[in-house]
Amino acid sequence: MAIFGLIKDKKGPMEQGKTYLIIFAIILILVIAGSIKRRFHPAKFALSIIALFFIPGLILAFWHGLLLVVTYKNIWLPLFIGLIAGVILYHLVLKRLFGFSTFEHELSHALVALFFLRRIKKFVVTRNNGGYVEHSHGFGGEVGNHFVSLGPYFLPTFTLISVLLRPFLPVEWFPWFDVWIGITFSYQTMNNLDELKDNWTRKGFRLAGSGDYTKTDIGREGYIFSFIMIIALKLLLISLLMFILVKGYPAFREWLIIIWSESLDFFRPVFTEMFYYLKHI
């Protein structure tokens, strides 16, 4: 909102409208570019527009969730210890454990596929040659396919499972369970960075088992679309997990309200100025 305030202080209504119109046009061009790969993909376009609309609210939800966590020493301290331990564990053990990262990667594909009611036909993990998941088509169609393909890059699998179980655990499990959550999140972050570095390419590779030549998940989905969706879904899941971590499942409503209201407040002046400008040109 401070950005829009700065524009209003320095520009008249006509200039403001032009500025917002230019910004919106640039965003729209990027979204359209990310939706075209040999042909226009309506599902990619719609998902990108929805993600961009909610990103401001997701950023604020992430910030509120972070403030919630750091407010409670009995939560942030064991989490912090777990984060440090996780970095050490990842570099000394997990990164060198052949097949483990591949297993987690393919598990993320499988979990997102199950979320879209797909049946898992094959789950292949190798020590040195990667892996793959084969699933049935079904609920979600092309939209579901995009989510399944990008699942390992936005889904903090072990952290998600741990946090969702947390409200049901006995008090005797704490603070050690929160240390575990910190370890899982640290692993997911380190592993994600390595996966993005390895998969942010159009170069192909030989598929494990069959030897068929294929592209990476991000190579198939496209850079622009992948970037938008990974950022939006990462913010969505991590902010939600922080709210549940501190307040339990009742915080879900508060989290949703923040995302919706903040996104609406962010874009309201954009569309107001755009309509004003278009009306007076």
Instruction: Kindly report the average pLDDT value.
Output: 85
Helix residue percentage: over 70%
Gyration radius (Cα, Å) is: 21 Å
Principal-axis shape equals globular
Distance between the termini: 25 Å
* Record field, number of beta strands: 6
Q: How much of the residues is beta strand, in percent?
A: 5-15%
The profile of the biggest β sheet is: 2 strands, antiparallel
Structural class: mainly alpha
Q: Can you count the helices?
A: 11
Note the run of SSEs as H and E: HHEEHHHEEHHHEEHHH
Task: Flag low-confidence runs.
Answer: 1-14
SSE diagram, text form:
Blueprint: H1 2-10, H2 13-35, E1 36-37, E2 39-40, H3 42-71, H4 73-92, H5 100-115, E3 120-125, E4 131-135, H6 141-154, H7 157-165, H8 176-199, E5 204-206, E6 213-215, H9 217-221, H10 223-247, H11 251-280
Antiparallel strand pairs: 1-2, 3-4, 5-6
Helix pairs in contact: 2-3, 2-10, 2-11, 3-10, 3-11, 4-8, 5-6, 7-8, 7-10
What keywords describe this structure?
mainly alpha, 281 residues, 11 helices, two-stranded antiparallel ribbon
Walk me through this protein's architecture.
The chain is 73% helix and 7% strand. It has helices at residues 2-10, 13-35, 42-71, 73-92, 100-115, 141-154, 157-165, 176-199, 217-221, 223-247, 251-280; strands spanning 36-37, 39-40, 120-125, 131-135, 204-206, 213-215. Strand 1 (36-37) and strand 2 (39-40) form a beta hairpin. The chain has a two-stranded antiparallel ribbon. Strands 3-4 form a two-stranded antiparallel sheet. It is globular. It starts with a helix and ends with a helix. The relative contact order is 0.18. The chain is built from eleven helices and six strands. By secondary structure, the protein is mainly α.
